[in-house]
Amino acid sequence: MRILHVLDHGLPLQSGYTFRTRAILTAQMAQGWDVAAVTGMRQGSAADAAETIDGIAFHRTGPGPLPGLPGEIAALAARVGAVADRFRPDVIHAHSPVIGALASLHAARRRGLPLVYEIRAFWEDAAVGNGTGREGSLRYRATRALETWAARRADHVAVICEGLRGDLIARGIDPARVLVSPNGVDLGLFGAPLPRDAGLAADLSLGDEVVGFIGSFYDYEGLDDLIAAMPALVAARPAAQLLLVGGGPMEAALRAQAAASPVADRIRFVGRVPHAEVERYYSLVDVLAYPRKRMRLTDLVTPLKPLEAMAQRKLVAASDVGGHRELIEDGRTGTLFAADDPAAAARALAALLADRSRWDERRARAEAFVREQRNWSSNIRRYQPVYQRLALAAEGNRTWSRIPSLQH
């Protein structure tokens, strides 16, 4: 089986998007499949080029001759086509945003190749979550319509969670054409959790009741609610501290909010840290907190970070948005609290910190859930029957054109 993946961006850039991509492609190669990837202009490549990172062959897309989004799609379509002509894939697997699907549709149809379109989040909702769009705006509606158009024309659609699948079905996409390939963890990347780094804890003046967040500081992550919860948490648990590792658009505002807090001395920011150092900071944290705000993005999409925390045998506490409810069983594998409610977050965290007798049991259940149900080495098998069916159909009829062309 030969699969050509089409990506917005990939390694060596680091994000939840690239970590999921690396896990999928690495697991597919371990299965014995031939895999290659094309990244779009947002990778930042100065020219069409190729490089191998972590054993994965990446083909970069340089700047196109046309400006704006049409130029971006045209450049990516040309690059996908050129790589497909050399690599000769059985299937083209495009990953969101929809730019990749549009470029890949053109390349796939011209070559009689089947297309799988994988949606990790709807582009219009991601823009709202990142603060670059407004729900219900003309741009939002146009992007939503384009996403639906692409999903209708792909030969199969993959999504990362049931929330996205349900939304697509509500838009009229045939349920039989929508595969759920949930977020997972490459357990091969995680060894035994590091023991507490006492030297780093001393450098940061951290005690033994640490709530932490390690990731990107976007508004939808709800870190302002976590900071707002700290006075009540410290009142209930005087030793409690908050460790924030990472950065992003909200960093300046969050630092200002923390500085004005009556418990400012209990909140630590350390900024971004090298990926190789992240496990040292995980070792300091007792409870990883994910206080995401309630909106379409967080209700529909499951995040990766809580699964990684569970894989490292860390306690997890999260808001009760839909994406978290797909991952966390309240009271068994983690703790859920009301979204957008700092008081509820404080109560949940205080109760969790007070009940150390159940920590080991909960950590073990959470790790077992990831190992048994969210392990990439088994998750990638979900793609196999879809790939095989589509490839056989295309091989049997190279003029195969069940899906309308781009001109329709």
Description:
With 408 residues, this protein is α/β, with parallel strands linked by helices. The chain folds into 2 domains: 2-184 and 376-396, Rossmann fold (3-Layer(aba) Sandwich), CATH 3.40.50.2000; 188-373, Rossmann fold, CATH 3.40.50.2000. The protein is 43% helix and 17% strand. It has 17 helices and 14 strands. The protein has helices at residues 16-30, 68-87, 98-111, 123-129, 138-153, 162-170, 198-203, 223-236, 251-259, 278-282, 296-300, 305-311, 322-325, 342-354, 359-373, 376-379, 383-396; strands at 2-7, 34-39, 49-53, 56-60, 91-95, 115-119, 156-159, 178-180, 210-216, 241-247, 267-271, 287-290, 315-319, 335-337. The strands form 2 sheets. The chain has an 8-stranded mixed beta sheet, sandwiched between helices. Strands 11-10-9-12-13-14 form a 6-stranded parallel beta sheet, with helices on both faces. It is globular and about 70 Å long. It comes from Sphingomonas corticis. InterPro entries: Glyco_trans_4-like_N, Glycosyltransferase_grp1, PEP-CTERM/XrtA_GlycosylTrfase. It holds the Pfam family Glyco_trans_1_4. This is Glycosyltransferase, exosortase A system-associated. Residues 16-184 form the Glycosyltransferase subfamily 4-like N-terminal domain.
Topology:
Blueprint: E1 2-7, H1 16-30, E2 34-39, E3 49-53, E4 56-60, H2 68-87, E5 91-95, H3 98-111, E6 115-119, H4 123-129, H5 138-153, E7 156-159, H6 162-170, E8 178-180, H7 198-203, E9 210-216, H8 223-236, E10 241-247, H9 251-259, E11 267-271, H10 278-282, E12 287-290, H11 296-300, H12 305-311, E13 315-319, H13 322-325, E14 335-337, H14 342-354, H15 359-373, H16 376-379, H17 383-396
Helix pairs in contact: 2-3, 3-5, 4-5, 8-14, 12-15
Domain Glycosyltransferase subfamily 4-like N-terminal: 16-184
Protein name: Glycosyltransferase, exosortase A system-associated
InterPro entries: Glyco_trans_4-like_N (IPR028098), Glycosyltransferase_grp1 (IPR050194), PEP-CTERM/XrtA_GlycosylTrfase (IPR024004)
